[in-house]
Amino acid sequence: MNYSTYKIKYQFDKETGQVTAEVPSLNYLSSFGKNFKQAEANIKEAIQAYLEALAKEHAPVPAEDRPRWGTFIKVPTPASSRYAFA
Predict the structure, then answer these.
(1) Contact 4, 77 (CB under 8 A)
(2) Would you kindly state where each structural domain of the chain is located, as residue ranges?
(3) In the predicted structure, residue 1 carries a pLDDT above the cut 80
């Protein structure tokens, strides 16, 4: 099984108490949760669904991010994926 690693940016909304997670490399795909753990689980699910949709459309998967600093998530990539290289 192939995996891809993407950087996640988190933001806490003081008004709602929600945590937003977004992935800049995937067209700023975003999700949210009541806390960081839930936001991470939700964004992981969203990333997997996004990558599966790209594979179904035979569209290239955006190049993964190279971990340097920040928060990163590693997700399985569909076997039929085509990769775009940076």
Answers:
(1) yes
(2) 2-83
(3) no
